[in-house]
Amino acid sequence: MTASARLYGATGNPIPGLVVENNTWRGPGVAGVFPLDIRDCTAPLVDGNKFVATRRGVTLQNSPGAVVAGNTFFKLVDVASASNIVYDAGVNTGIVVGRNKIAGTAITGVGSAPSSSGAQVELMPMPAAYTTTGRPPAAAVGAGATYFDTTLGKPGWSNGSTWRDAAGTTI
């Protein structure tokens, strides 16, 4: 497929149930353009795609109920944080991001993409290793996220508000 695609419904007349699956997106595309830009769609599904050496990932705008799952993001360029992989451009609610793989990409921060609706997309590259002071906030990565604490020499799990070890002790 091409380096980028824009899939837009119309304001007030969104595309319902758009499905984008099993595509391969290659190349950096145009500066500042996401390979897949979805706007004005209701409950779009982005599943099983491969993003190889693309400039960024997926952007969503005015697309409530979007699901971005089962995709592989490989050797992305221009990525300072995970918010550039799946970006909430605003007016979204109920975004679900899961089962995505990030490979060959140096993520320097967890990142979040707050929108005008208050929705957030949060990703933490897994498996991840951080120092105790360098790890992202447990609330930012959500319940169930895990990392290896290089300071303590053990894994930590987020309960959505604090980091805990296997015994349940706050770390």
Q: Can you walk through the features of this model?
A:
- It is a single chain.
- The chain is an all-beta fold and 171 residues long.
- The chain has two domains: 5-121, no CATH class; 126-171.
- The protein has one helix and 18 strands.
- It has one helix at residues 138-141; strands spanning 5-8, 15-16, 19-21, 24-26, 36-39, 41-42, 45-47, 50-52, 58-61, 67-69, 72-74, 86-88, 96-98, 101-103, 129-130, 146-149, 154-158, 163-164.
- A four-stranded parallel beta sheet has the order 1-5-9-12, with no helix packed on it. Strands 3-7-10-13 form a four-stranded parallel beta sheet, with no helix packed on it. A four-stranded parallel beta sheet has the order 4-8-11-14, with no helix packed on it.
- Strand 15 (129-130), helix 1 and strand 16 form a beta-alpha-beta unit.
- It is globular, with a radius of gyration of 17 Å.
- The termini are far apart.
Keywords for this entry:
4-stranded parallel sheet, 171 residues, globular, 2 domains, 1 helix, mainly beta
